[in-house]
Amino acid sequence: MMENSAAHLTRRKPKKPKKRWKKPLIITLSVLIVLGGLGYVYQKQLVLLAFDLFASGTVKEALDDSYKPVGDQNAEVPVVQHTDPFSLLLLGIDQRDNEPSRSDTIIYSVVRPEDNKVLLLSIPRDSYTEIVGRDVKSKINSAYAHGEAKMAMDTVENLLENKVDFYAAINFNGLKDIVDAVGGVELPIKKNIENKLKSHEKLFVEANKPIYSGEEALGYVRYREDSDFNRTMRHRIFLSAFMNRALEVKNLTKIPDVIKIAGSNFTTNMSSDFIVNFAESLYMKDSAPTISNYMLKGDGATRSGTWYYDLSEDDLQHVRTMLSNWLDPDATEIMEPESADGEEKDAA
To answer: Taking 50 as the threshold, does the pLDDT of residue 348 lie above it?
Structure first.
C-alpha cells in the first residue's frame, strides 16, 4: 500500500512543475504585452519625463541667456498663455563685416496652439514702408539696422495693423551648426543651386540629396540669384523642414545642444518658461503643426536710383483681415491663404 502510494506520488511529481510554471509564464507575457503597449501609447510622455528630468534645466538656462526684452530692461513682456493664439516676428540677421545688421529675413508668424496651426507671412526685405521711430519711408529691413527688434516690431505692427507679441532674431552665422546638431535637414532641391555673379560669395548646393548639412542649408536660404519670391519661399520651406527634424523623437535630447549652439546668435523676448511649455504642448500633439504660407504681393519700383518693392494696398487689406482672423481665439473658421506659394519654384 505504501509502495503504491509512493509510486502514485512519484508519478504526480513531474506534472506539478508544469502547472507551477505555466501560469506565471502567461502572466509574465501578459504584463510584457501590456507594458509594451503602454510604452508605445505613452512614449511621448516618457520622453517628456526624461526631458524634464535631464534636459529642461539646461534648456531653460540657455534660453535665459538668449532673453532680450524689447527696448529697455524694464519693458513689459506680453502676457500670453501658451495655449492662446500669438504672433511671433521671425528675423534672420545676415550680419556681414563692417555693415549694419539688417534683417535679411522677415516672417510674421501666427501660432494657434489649440488648432495645431501656424501661418508664416513673408515680408519682402525691400518692401517700401514707413520706418516707425525714424519718420521716413524706406526698405523695411533697415528698421532692424537702426533700432533693432523694437523698431522692427513697431514697423511691422504699423504695416500689418496687427499686434506683434514676440520676436525671435537669429544670426545666420549660427544656422549652420544648429542644422548639423540635428543631423541635417531634408530640402526639396530639384536642381543645383549656385551663385554665378562675381560680386556674390561662392555658393553651390547639389540637388536631390536625401539630407543636407548645415553649410548646404545656409547656402539654400542665402541664395539670391533668382527672385525675392523664391528666396522668401526657401526661408519658409527651411523653417518647416527644420521644425519637423527637431520634433523627431531621436532629436529631442539634442535640443539643449541646439539652444547652446544658438547662444549669442539668438535673441528673443519670450521667457524660457513660455518657450518650454509651448514646446512640450507642441510635442504632445499627434502630428507636426499644419503650416500655411503667404507672401505679401507687390511690384518693383525705382526711387532715386534705388530699387524698392511696392506693396499692393489691396493685398495688404486682405492680409490684415486674415491675420485678425488667425489671432482671434474665438474664431471657429480660419482663413487660409488663397495660394500657398505660387509656382515660381525652379530654385527649389
So the answer is: no
Average pLDDT over residues 244-250: 76
How many Cβ atoms are within 10 Å of 270's Cβ, its own excluded?
21
> DSSP label at 237?
H
- For 319-343, what is each residue's pLDDT tens digit? 999 999 999 999 999 999 875 444 3
**At a CB cut-off of 8 Å and minimum separation 6, what does 322 contact?**
119, 294, 335, 337
pLDDT tens, position by position, 121-164: 999 999 999 999 998 999 999 999 999 999 999 999 999 999 99
Beta partners for residue 168, in sequence order: 90, 268
Instruction: Give the strand pairing for 117-122 and 290-295.
Output: parallel
| Nearest Cα residue to 151 out of 168, 139, 134, 172 | 134
List pLDDT tens digits, range 100-118: 677 878 999 999 999 999 9
How far is it, in rounded angstroms, from Cα 214 to Cα 262? 13
Rounded to whole angstroms, the Cα distance separating 25 from 313 reads: 74
Across 36-61, b (16+ Cβ under 10 Å) vs e yields eeeeeeeeeeebbeebeeebbeebbe
The Cα 101–Cα 88 span in angstroms is: 20
Q: Which amino acid, one-letter code, is at 312?
A: S
Computed on alpha carbons and rounded to an integer, the radius of gyration of the chain in Å comes to 27
Specify the pLDDT at position 26: 57
Give pLDDT tens digits for 175-207. 888 899 889 999 999 999 998 887 777 889 999
Q: What angle do CA 299, 301, 304 make, to 5 degrees?
A: 165
For 162, residues 6+ apart whose C-beta sits below 8 A from its C-beta are: 87, 320, 323, 324, 327
Q: Give, for 174, the enclosing helix (H) or strand (E).
A: none
Spatial separation of the C-alpha atoms in residues 246 and 254, rounded to whole Å? 8
Distances (CA, A) of 254 to 16, 178, 205, 258: 53, 10, 26, 6
Closest by CA position to 153, among listed 243, 234, 90, 216: 90
**Among candidate residues 101, 345, 105, 107, the one with its CA nearest the CA of residue 227:** 345
